[in-house]
Amino acid sequence: MPRTHEPGSSDRPAVSGRAAPAQYGALGPDRNWHLGAGLILVATAVAFTIWAFTHTGTGVNSFILILAIAFGLFMAFNIGGNDVANSFGTSVGAGTLTMKQALVVAAVFEVSGAVLAGGSVTETVRSGIVDLGGLQSDAPAFAYIMMSALLGAAVWLLLATRMGWPVSTTHAIIGGIVGAAVTTGLVTGTGGLAMVQWGEIGQIAVSWVLSPLLGGIAAYLLFGAIKRRILAPAARAIALGSRGFDEDDDEDDDNDASEDESRHVPGYERVTELQQSAFAESAELDRRPGSPGAELVEQAGQLSKKERKAARNVERKAAYHALEKRVPPLAAGAAVVIAAMLMFKGLGNVGLEFTLWRAGVMLIMLAVGVWMATTVFARALRKQTISRATFIMFSWLQVFTACAFAFSHGANDIANAVGPFAAVLDVLRTGTVSQEAAVPMAVLVAFGVALIAGLWFVGRKVIHTVGTGLTSMHPSSGFAAELAAAATVLLASVLGLPVSSTHILIGAVLGVGIVNRAANWKLMRPIFLAWIITLPAAAGIGAVTVLLLRALLLA
Fold this sequence. Notes:
- It is found in: Membrane.
- The protein is mainly alpha-helical and 555 residues long.
- It has helices at residues 31-56, 62-94, 99-117, 139-162, 169-188, 198-239, 249-255, 259-262, 273-280, 292-302, 305-325, 327-345, 356-380, 386-412, 415-430, 441-458, 460-469, 475-495, 501-515, 521-553; strands at 121-123, 436-438.
- It is elongated and about 90 Å long.
């Protein structure tokens, strides 16, 4: 799945002479993809609507059901545009996946996570944030609250997505429920601000700081170690003119003869753009006066041919040794973290309970298998250039973390759209409010398709923010950010800490940027402000929506 051509290169064949301007339709070069995704979404919506009418029965209010379906699919669409895009931002930004490849991976693993581990039942009152006890006997009012929450959260998510701000979809749906419920309580005299569990709101506020801080620390430590122990030897070998393990050193010496060339890191101009991306994330990228990179350039330029050849052989062997001896345990540890996250945050939703002893045995077996497989893979890359071997190794590691993230996301965060909608569907079918509502498979499939469509149609700005806006991403740094985020989410779940996976991943990206001295703090300011605004903004839109629904449907 990693790219096999240089980043930025075209898939179209070159032509001699002056290139004719490309002729694209109104939908641009991806016209067929746009049309295909749009048709699949429309067909899914139509089929799902037909199913919903048969599921709820003939006595259902058609207008309310159609509105609920529209609001629910719209919410799932915007979760895809913001939350799923946030999850794939590091992979696309690093060049590990193209946008189309990300769409395919998301289609397979997001939908699989939603269908296989999305849960057969969902709580109708989300997270205990607001007390709806006074409205339990008023089924229509309860349905309007959930519908308004869906629209309130979806509208805010769309606005944030259009600005390129990755925000928490969980906080958005909570805000929508709070705003709609409090407004309904005030209008009907059954409650007010006292309905809100302010302690839970306080935990959300804590997560604004705790989540990115934990993710940032984890990524800073992990990527810093990767740079020092794995990437730095490869960077030094490239700076000394080395290209591969069995290359002809005499040929390199001829190419390095010029003193002017040696002053500009010999060999660096000869590597491809793909190779440069691996070198660019090394510890020697910073070549400002006094930096390690500047010292390395100066030292390399002062070496004689014989000294350069000897140093090149040492660093070249050290680079391949790092790939063969240090990457496999890293990959094994990553496999354990990802598998543990899937066990406890994904498969646990379908009732697959793992005892500590059984889970431990399975994780150990997995770690050993991954260690051995990665060692064999690293040895197979010995004939590749140093930069390309490093790029390929971390690209594949990042593909696996991206797939696991997609499955876990589909298994968990789809509930932000499915939960309220399932509650409305249950009310329309039974006429009563239940503490838990069944989630039919058709709902999970339809909302999964809407999720993927949202990623394709509106997710690019968020992907740009996460993948290139906050800091420059490459396969090893993207892998480090994703693994650090996964480990932090898992640890926070075990400890019961109030965190947001979205905020954790953003913190991890910033942690990578700090290691590279390239974090874009200016862009982080509006993102942090958007985190704070998310809950009140969704609450305000939800409040207005519930007033409109009550005026329209209860008149």
